[in-house]
Amino acid sequence: MDEYSLHQLMFRKGKLIDQTPEFISFRRTYIDKWGPVSFILMNFEKLFTDHDVQLAYVDGRQLVELARENLDKPTKEEMFDCINNKDEVGKLVKIPTRMFKGPEGPILAATVIQKNFRMYKAREAYKHLRFLMKKATIIQRRFRLYLFQKQTKDRVEELTNESLFVWKEMMDEFKQKWPSIKNRRRVEVHISSISIEELKRISMAKFLQRENA
């Protein structure tokens, strides 16, 4: 029975089904090589689990040959050769050297190239857009600052003109009333400019006091 068994191993949701007659026969047949065989089986479980393969069938005889030839961790390509339902598993396990083989290989390759090129163009366009948005933000910030400075300057000029207008009105009124003001008792306050040195301001104040006295 063991000699004529296909030894097809079943993996469901990434886990090896070890209760089937096929697996029991497979283990009984290769029990003397079970160390490297079990290592390969663990690698298959990891491969199917990582790629969420729901159902896979592995040729036990090819698996044993792989265990004999390679004592290190097998590659995905080597493991893929042992899978019986390659079409279903290949859609989930992307192996570059296997993806574009077969009659649909050129079409699939062209599709992948187009997809990657569109992704590249979109990424470059996004980078360029971010660059433009950054520069536009700087320009807007500088322009708002310019408007604020201009508005402030205009406001200061407006306030200065208003103060000057008020001062001129006061001077005109003072000139008109001066004939009557000069004959009345009054107090004159002289404020020296702060731009003059302190010693000169004190001397001028004393001089004005003597003149008024």
Which helices and strands appear, and what pairs or packs with what?
Blueprint: E1 8-12, E2 15-16, H1 21-29, H2 34-50, E3 55-59, H3 60-69, H4 76-80, H5 86-90, H6 96-99, H7 105-181, H8 198-212
Antiparallel strand pairs: 1-2, 1-3
What does this entry show, briefly?
The chain has 213 residues and is mainly alpha-helical.
Pattern of helices and strands: EEHHEHHHHHH
- Beta-strand level of the residues, as a percent range? 5-15%
The chain-level mean pLDDT equals 83
Structural class: mainly alpha
How are the strands of the biggest sheet laid out side by side?
2-1-3
Share of helical residues: 55-70%
User: What are the low-pLDDT stretches, counting only 5+ consecutive residues below 50?
Assistant: none
Please report the number of helical segments: 8
Please outline the major beta sheet.
3 strands, antiparallel
Q: Rough shape?
A: rod-shaped
Structure description:
The protein has helices at 21-29, 34-50, 60-69, 76-80, 86-90, 96-99, 105-181, 198-212; strands at 8-12, 15-16, 55-59. With 213 residues, the protein is mainly alpha-helical. Among the domains are: 8-99, no CATH class; 182-212, no CATH class. A three-stranded antiparallel β-sheet has the order 2-1-3. Strand 1 (8-12) and strand 2 (15-16) form a beta hairpin. Helix 2 (34-50) packs across helix 3.
Which features would summarize this protein structure in a list?
single chain, 3 strands, mainly alpha, 3-stranded antiparallel sheet, 6% strand, 8 helices, 213 residues
